Amino acid sequence: MTTFLTVLVATVAYLGYRLQSLSVGGAITAFVVGVGILISFGYEGLLVLAIFFVSSTLLGRVPTRKFKREHEVRTVGQVFANGGVATLAALSSLLFVDDELAMILFISAFAAANSDTWATEGGRRWGGRPYHLRKRGRASIGRSGAITVVGTLFSFVGSALIALSGSILMLDGEWALLMTLAGFTGALADTLIGAFIQEERKCIHCQSMTEEKRHCGSKTKISRGVLGIDNNIVNTVSTMVAPLLSLFIFLLV
Ligand SMILES: [Zn+2]
């Protein structure tokens, strides 16, 4: 079973690379994430990863006329930002952390990643013009630090989906509410850091604001925020906030 699932993980990572959804590094990181979760939590853990991966990918493919969907090749940083912390939480169960606690931390981290992705994909498709938390006004669609009502609902449902399925698969149906709230809070932290701390860059050619390091064939310039705090760092932090919150409450009760 484990051998079969390891081959399955390798195949998915390889296909991701072949279909240009993942860079070489991204594919290797995805493989490490999959196998790390598999050896820690077996197929149940892998199923939680699959629900995150499939649901957020499908949501990101829903056709829309609101914006042009650019083809994105996910790198090491992007894969780690979504699954790195969850994998470390899973691996902690092999060392010294209580199994139940490690599972809660693992599911909470993925709940945050899913919550954030769902908020972004749902919000920019069906949410209308977002409100920017720092600028206190309307922002362009998809911008970091901006929220919509619809996106916030998606954020909650995205977190609940992972928390509920993880709870049923791994924790006999327990801790679902805690993990839902933790994941949702992680995504909220993502938005707040995105609004107030994350670097914003500007294209030197077309003057558009972007998160990309390159635009129109040249390097972009930082226009505000903290240099180096990019989207990947913010996403990684958000997947850390959720398990830390769960840890705090777990130790409290
Ligand atoms: Zn440009």
Automatic annotation (TrEMBL):
Supply the alphabetized keyword list.
Membrane, Transmembrane, Transmembrane helix
Asked if Transmembrane helix is a keyword of the record, the answer is yes
Q: Where in the cell is it found?
A: Membrane
Q: How does it sit in the membrane?
A: Multi-pass membrane protein
InterPro entries referenced in this protein's UniProt entry, alphabetically: DUF92_TMEM19
What cellular component terms from Gene Ontology apply here?
A: membrane
Q: Which residues cross the membrane?
A: 28-54, 75-95, 101-120, 141-169, 175-197, 233-252
Q: Which domain of life is it from?
A: Bacteria
Q: What is its main location?
A: membrane
Q: Of which family is this protein a member?
A: Belongs to the TMEM19 family.
Name of the protein described by the UniProt record: Uncharacterized protein (TIGR00297 family)
- Species: Geomicrobium halophilum
